């Protein structure tokens, strides 16, 4: 079996991590148990470009147990791979091409190994797999049953591909499932972002001024956790007037980044766009300002501008690079500007990835069950799958909810009943 990981000697340690995740992902484990008997994915070839973490491992094992003939996995970020988990997956029969610290060339080489496996269904996080297929492998694109996309950034890229009339196969935007973005993006990223910042710096959040760029679901979660950790001020920067107004009504300060740059202690980007923090902002930051990114790509903090302002730099702690500016100020960049929660920590807690990856699993099954019936468009997950994940999650937490009576159901369907 072909694969490329850092060291197979790490496999036993990785198995323990995966076991921990399995114990905290009850929904996905229920689906895995159910479909390991009927094997609805029998014969399917699956190619995935996802963060290689213990939670991803549970998903990969579930897909294989459900009958997938070949499961090939590459990393969706050069620095997010948990090397021990990658090795453990190889022992389970998953072909993995991932190791922490890949160069850009190695990163795309790994993605191309996924493409070379001729997958029937592709899973992506960030859109690099989908983009590579559409840019370099159109012959394969015509054969693919469909794909999924895990994150906001990737959905944006796929919708652009669809808008240009170039999308070749149907894609389910798993990110748009309610049981994904309302929980993963908000509670998962909110907690794991600060987990990464604290592991990297060990600073005290209480009393600090935290600036959050972007108030989507990720930004909401980060701002909420900053407040919970005792930040003295939480400032939100936005370009969307509705989101900015929501941030105000949620009790946060809102101002342009050029003003926030003067007072912030910690800056966290979560926009999905490029150059959100750039030269004119860096020039106004106080000595010791900390920059962290929670967006998918390392373009939100514009590193070329930081380099141009600096007289020198050094790695002062793992995942903390100190930039010494020409005027003597110091700015600290975390995790090379990449996803701080995955580079400096372990990513989202297993409990929240349980729902995200249950959605991924059901999306793969839905695509396979409906092969040949869906046009090449970006689809939101069917509502019934979303509700199924939510009900299973509630059951796993021993939480019961009410049910509508027949009379209530009829009332909600009627237009004749009024005051």
UniProtKB/TrEMBL annotation:
EC annotation from Swiss-Prot or TrEMBL: 3.13.2.1
Record-listed substrate binding positions: 53, 125, 150, 180, 184
Record's function text: May play a key role in the regulation of the intracellular concentration of adenosylhomocysteine.
Coiled coil: 387-414
Keyword Secreted: no
Domain S-adenosyl-L-homocysteine hydrolase NAD binding: 185-347
Gene encoding the protein: ahcY
Cofactor note: Binds 1 NAD(+) per subunit.
Cofactor: NAD(+)
Tagged with keyword Transcription regulation: no
Name of the molecule in the record: Adenosylhomocysteinase
Protein family membership: Belongs to the adenosylhomocysteinase family.
HAMAP family: AdoHcyase
Binding site for NAD(+): 151-153, 185, 214-221, 238, 294-296, 341, 348
Catalytically driven reaction(s): S-adenosyl-L-homocysteine + H2O = L-homocysteine + adenosine
GO MF entries: adenosylhomocysteinase activity
A Pfam family recorded for this sequence: AdoHcyase
CDD domains, A to Z: SAHH
Gene Ontology BP term (one): L-homocysteine biosynthetic process
UniProt keyword terms in alphabetical order: Coiled coil, Cytoplasm, Hydrolase, NAD, One-carbon metabolism
Predominant place of localization: cytoplasm
PANTHER family, per database record: ADENOSYLHOMOCYSTEINASE
GO cellular component, one term: cytosol
Location in or out of the cell: Cytoplasm
């Amino acid at each position: 079996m072909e694969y490329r990981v850092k060291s197979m000697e790490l496999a036993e340690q990785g198995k323990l991590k995966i076991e921990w995740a399995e114990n905290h992902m009850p929904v996905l484990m229920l689906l895995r148990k159910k479909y390991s008997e009927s094997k609805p994915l029998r014969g399917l070839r699956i190619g995935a470009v996802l963060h290689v973490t213990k939670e991803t491992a549970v998903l990969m094992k579930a897909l294989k147990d459900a009958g997938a003939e070949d499961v090939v996995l590459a990393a969706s970020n050069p620095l997010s791979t948990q090397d021990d988990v990658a090795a453990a997956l190889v022992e389970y029969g998953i072909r993995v091409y991932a190791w922490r610290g890949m160069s850009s060339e190695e990163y795309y080489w790994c993605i191309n190994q996924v493409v070379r496996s001729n997958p029937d269904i592709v899973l992506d996080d960030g859109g690099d797999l989908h983009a590579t297929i559409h840019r370099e492998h159109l012959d394969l694109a015509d054969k693919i049953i469909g794909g999924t996309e895990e994150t906001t950034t990737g959905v944006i890229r796929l919708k652009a591909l669809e808008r240009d009339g170039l999308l070749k196969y149907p894609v389910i935007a798993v990110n748009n499932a309610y049981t994904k973005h309302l929980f993963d993006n908000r509670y998962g990223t909110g907690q794991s972002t600060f987990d990464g910042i604290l592991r990297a710096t060990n600073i005290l959040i209480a009393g600090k001024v935290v600036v959050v760029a972007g108030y989507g679901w990720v930004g909401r979660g980060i701002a909420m956790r900053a407040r919970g950790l005792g930040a003295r001020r939480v400032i939100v920067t936005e370009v969307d007037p509705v989101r900015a107004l929501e941030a105000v009504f949620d009790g946060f300060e809102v101002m342009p980044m050029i003003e926030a740059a003067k007072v912030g202690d910690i800056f966290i980007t979560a926009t999905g766009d490029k150059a959100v923090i750039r030269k004119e902002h860096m020039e106004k930051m106080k000595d010791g300002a900390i920059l962290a990114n929670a967006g998918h790509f390392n373009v939100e903090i514009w590193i070329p501008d930081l380099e141009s302002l600096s007289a020198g730099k050094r790695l002062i702690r793992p995942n903390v690079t100190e930039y010494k500016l020409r005027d003597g100020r110091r700015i600290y960049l975390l995790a090379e500007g990449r996803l701080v929660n995955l580079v400096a920590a372990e990513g989202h807690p297993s409990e929240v990835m349980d729902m995200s990856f249950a959605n991924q699993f059901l999306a793969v099954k839905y695509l396979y069950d409906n092969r040949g019936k869906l046009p090449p468009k970006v689809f939101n997950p069917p509502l019934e799958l979303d509700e199924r994940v939510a009900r299973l999650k509630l059951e796993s937490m021993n939480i019961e909810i009410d049910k509508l009576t027949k009379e209530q159901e009829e009332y909600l369907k009627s237009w004749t009943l009024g005051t």
